Amino acid sequence: MPDTEPQRSVHRRSQDPVYAELAASKEFAELRRRYRGFAFPWTVAFLVWYLLYVVMSMWAHDFMSIKLVGNINVALVFGLSQFVTTFMIARLYATHAQKSLDPLAEELEQRYRKAVK
Amino acid sequence: MNTQVLTATLFILVVLVTIAITVWASRQNTGTTDFYAAGRSFSGFQNGMAVSGDYMSAASFLGISGAIALAGYDGFLYSIGFLVAWLLALLLIAELLRNSGRYTMADQLAYRMRQRPVRTAAATSTVVVSIFYLLAQMVGAGSLVALLLNVEGQGLKNLTIVGVGALMIFYVTVGGMKGTTWVQIVKAVLLMAGTVLITVLVLAKFGFNLSELLGAAADKTGKGEAFLQPGLKYGINTTTKIDFVSLSIALVLGTAGLPHILIRFYTVPTARDARKSVFWAIGLIGAFYLMTLVLGFGAAAMLDTGPESEVALSGGNLASPLLAEAVGGGAGSTGGAVLLALISAVAFATILAVVAGLTLTSASSVAHDLYANVFKKGTASEVSEVKVARLAAFVIGGIAILLAIPAQKLNIAFLVALAFAVAASANLPSLVYNLFWRRFNTRGATWSIYGGLVSCVVLVAFSPVVSGKVLPDGKTGSLFPLGVDFHWFPLENPGIISIPLGFLFGWLGTITAKDPEAEAAYDELEVRSLTGAGSEKAVVH
Predict the structure, then answer these.
(1) Which residues, listed in sequence order, are joined to residue A73 by a DSSP beta bridge?
(2) Which residues from B are below 8 Å from A13, CB to CB?
(3) pLDDT at B269 > cutoff 70
(4) How far is A40 from chain B (nearest CA, A)?
(5) In sequence order, what are the residues at sequence separation of 6 or more whose Cβ sits closer than 8 angstroms to the Cβ of residue A115?
(6) 3-state SS track over B439-467
(7) How many C-beta atoms surround the C-beta of residue B16 within 10 A?
(8) Can you tell me the distance from the alpha carbon of B297 to that of B213, in angstroms, rounded to the nearest whole number?
(9) At what angle do helices B210-221 and B176-205 cross, to 10 degrees?
């Protein structure tokens, strides 16, 4: 389909060749690898961890009801551990992004700016 | 001074303060970037507060503490999906969307697809999700204000719905995204401060010993240890258990597809600020749900929550306000009256802020996607686009008021769950495919959006929510009266089926169509989303 839409308020790709160039660069391949290498496994991990919690709450009633200290049972500790892991994964990602992703992304963005000027 | 007068005074104060903020924020509200994205001028922390303000609705504040007060552990279990879901937004969506989009959810798809079909589809699901969520909030507002002011009668509820609707139209048309964001920030501060205060007062009653608080709750409710174990609400039989799994999947996958959350990421200058927004939001929302745990069990331990109690008759919604009264010194005391009025006003501010965010989202999508790009094919001027957005806010606000009055019979928790299910089934698949799958194309995008949306709505239409559910006391548990029964889908939550269907339709549509244009554009989308090269910049005034 030919692109007959004017560029004024539409939001679509510029077709600037610099993007293909950057996409093919070693640095971009590395950025993609570092990003996906972190984001994908951790997404799977937290989803599995959460679903395990939900399924056990539904079908492992006796185990979840074991008392640990006073009135604190396994279910409560498991639930609170979901908070801990959520905070932890968020922290890990923030550190990873700052250390390993941002410098590469900035470098590539600089190259883009030079090219379009 | 009695509580009602004090409460009403604080309500009026909340209204006046939010109106003042909106008028103040409207000074620089001319172009589309100002109206839709607040000039992309908020910091990560400010937007993090606004995101959590958008997310912690009255359904969370009053609903979850009420659910814990009535169903114990299962209420807490329900709250966790709402928090964990943010990791998906953090890891896969927020930054990439900030870099590749502009004003609406559809922008990110339209970047490499054919404009008109994908924008029409995305605008449809944006408006549907926002309207379901909006109805939940407005119905809640009606009954809540009546409860909090302790006035009987349908007339006041209807009046409240109209009043809340008029205010949200005002915030959006006058304040745009900037005004709406500041209202969210103020609301988030009020909500956190109110919640911290009541939590500390409750914990102090139990010597800051959680185990003691739990024990007192188990004793007072008469349900004993079962109150602290999973199963009271969702563990009745295999169907209710699978239903809860279905609900959990929709919660955990729906958050990152809620349009009113997604467009918040456009209000910051860079992707790093979008990341910080989510990071702060996770901290605030997590802290909030931890305190809700104390409020819920505190209410169970200190209030009467039996079947004929005020807490139970309000469906749990009055648990937090009445708990505030109890820790302030009880009914009739000055401390009790002040705290009750304070918490009621916080709940009211919460409702106002959330409905404003939802109205803005729908209006933006109608103006930017449907009017400017589908109807005018991108030839509309910025001035006319903002005019249409303001007009759309009026129309959508009006429709929401008209729908909310008859919708008062609907269950609020069900409406919220439905909004999450549609977001997860219709929006998330296309967002994820578009960002990570080169082959994804226009047909895949429209099929996944319409496919997910229709599956969700059809399954709910033929579920026990709509017909054929008989409660233990012999009354109907459905929308339709007793005797009408056309349900064949056993679950109340469609997510477990409709979310995989949304992904399946997206895959099927993609592999049955050739769209070299969309594939060729993937390089540009991927470079832009990961590096920010060419992304929309903040406006300098």
Answers:
(1) A67
(2) 111-112, 521, 524-525
(3) yes
(4) 8
(5) A16, A18, A21
(6) CCCHHHHHHHHHHHHHHHHHHHHCCCCCC
(7) 10
(8) 7
(9) 80
pLDDT at residue B523 is higher than 90: yes
Tokens linked to B308: 């004929």
- Asked if the Cβ–Cβ distance from B231 to A61 is below 8 Å, we say yes
Q: What are the tens digits of pLDDT across the range B308-321?
A: 888 888 888 889 99
Tens of pLDDT, residues B56-106: 987 778 889 999 999 999 999 999 999 999 999 999 999 999 999 999 999
Percent of chain B with pLDDT over 90: 68
Query: Comparing C-alpha atoms, which of B466, B502, B494 is closest to residue B481?
Result: B466
A51 assigned to some structural domain: yes
CB contact under 8 A, B92 and A93: no
CATH of span B3-531 = 1.20.1730.10
CB-based contact B286 A87, cutoff 8 Å: yes
Residue of chain A whose Cα is closest to the Cα of B383? A9
Give the Cα separation of B452 and B130 in Å (integer): 16
What predicted TM-score, i.e. pTM, was given to this entire model? 0.94
Is position A10 within any domain?
no
Question: How many structural domains compose chain A?
Answer: 1
pLDDT of residue B298: 97
Dihedral sign for Cα atoms in the order B40, B42, B43, B49: negative
Are A79 and B528 a contacting pair at CB < 8 A? no
Question: Residue A14's pLDDT is what?
Answer: 78
Say what the pLDDT of residue A11 is.
64
